[in-house]
Amino acid sequence: MATDYEEYEGDVEVDDTEISFTEYEISASPNDFNVKTLVDFIGSGIVKIPGFQRNYVWDIKRASKLIESILIGIPIPQIFLYEQGKNNFLVVDGQQRYFTIYFFSLKRFPKKEKRFELRKIFDESKGIPENILNDNAYFVDFNLSLPEHLPGRKNRFNRRNYATLSDDDRTAFNLRTIRNIIVKQNSPDDGDSVVFEIFNRLNSGGVNLKPQEIRTSLYHSKFYDMLYRINMDKNWRDLTPKETPDLNMKDVEILLRGFAMLVNHEKYAPSLTKFLNDFSAKARKFSDDQIFYLESLFLEFTRVVCTIDKKIFFTQSGRFNISLYESIFVALTEDTYLKSERNIRLTDKSKVKQLKTDKEFVEATQSRTADTKNVALRLAKAKAILLS
């Protein structure tokens, strides 16, 4: 298993910053839905996956284990649904389980490199269209991958799929009930703020969620929708380690850092985690015009730097350096941003090379990277060298 974010240098430091929340009055009612009903809920658009949820990340073995549990009657953890309105629910905990059941019923398992794209298709189509489902570029057959033999007998479900189950097993699977807790916010009357808090508290103890996944649940906004959008920009993808977005939103976190430093670097103080949280909260109030401007500025930035060097943000070790990215981004866009213009400042490859080999700059990217002094030094050095 690859280490987390191994393609990147300069990760966000994780701290124990506490956030204070409003008191809520909620109602929570248990409902036992059978598998067929849950699958129908997705197909009809009654149940949705909110934008702050991460992509589907389970592998075939973990997914197969869940399906086997359902087939043999072992209870699985409950699913939490948030009631937005009549026949309108959001999955706030249990998405991986829900999607596993959904994909198995469709007899297809999503390819890892296509899951970000499939999520977008799913949101737009209220499910997976038949032509995409049958496209082997997106899916493989969902054949259960289980231990071939159990103690004293053969595992009869190994390599089976929904279509090849016996009629009795398929019926038992469809009728198996799963506990769903339906949560509804009664007060305060501020929309659906509790949904983010529920998601955070249910998931923050898990080892699989990354800082940005928690952050995006708490501060989801039109600004964050823009981050997801520009994360798919072809030029940006050419500048990052992978063609496809990171399933744990590391690249979204990098985009957030760039904008936070551009807009608020003069007020920066550790911890970096709190700095990004505060900026995310502030961004929830950005107007549509502000968001459109930041998006346009970023797209012009990626267009320009792609003409300089598509490895511009990589160090000699071959890894994408986050501090290098945010330094170059701020250096080339700050003057334009302050003037509300769109034509960014230009530089060239030789100046970028000079920045990457500058002793003080390099030291500020290798240790105590979140210190106020080192952040200020990196940005000052980048402006002085790149714009000279």
What do you see in this structure?
The protein is of the alpha/beta class. It contains 17 helices and eleven strands. It has two domains: 25-187, no CATH class; 208-386, no CATH class. The chain has helices at 35-44, 60-72, 95-106, 115-125, 130-133, 167-175, 193-203, 211-218, 222-230, 234-239, 250-264, 272-283, 288-308, 322-338, 349-357, 359-366, 372-386; strands at 8-9, 25-34, 47-48, 79-85, 88-93, 108-110, 139-141, 149-150, 153-154, 177-187, 320-321. The longest helix is centred in the last third of the chain and has 21 residues, at 288-308. It is elongated, with a radius of gyration of 23 Å.
Summary, kept brief:
The chain is of the alpha/beta class and 388 residues long. The protein is 49% helix and 13% strand. It has 17 helices and 11 strands.
